[in-house]
Amino acid sequence: MVTHMKTTIELPHSLLNDAKKLAAREGTTLRELIETALRSLLKERKEKKKPFKLKDGSVTGNGLAPGLDWKDMHRIILASYGDRGGEPL
Asked: CA spacing 20 to 30 A to 65: which of 41, 48, 54, 73?
């Protein structure tokens, strides 16, 4: 089972130099510094992402308005527009 993989990434020289200096100051390797930073970023972003929750769109009432019938969807749709160009009940 492969647990590590070599890859090549392009970084700005200034960022790479800063990372090398930090790794040296902390007595660690550049690889360990990058791995730790990447793991931390991935964990942070995963924790920020909240699952989608649909808002409750329930309404109160007792079914269709008087004069409407479930078999006449065209009339229901027109009535749903009310004073915005629909058909009055």
From this structure: 54
Whether residue 75 is predicted with pLDDT greater than 90 in this model: the reply is: no
Residue that the structure tokens 């790794």 belong to: 23
**pTM value?**
0.51
Distances (CA, A) of 73 to 56, 64, 88: 24, 11, 15
CA distances from 87 to 6, 40, 46, 73, 75 (A): 67, 58, 49, 13, 8
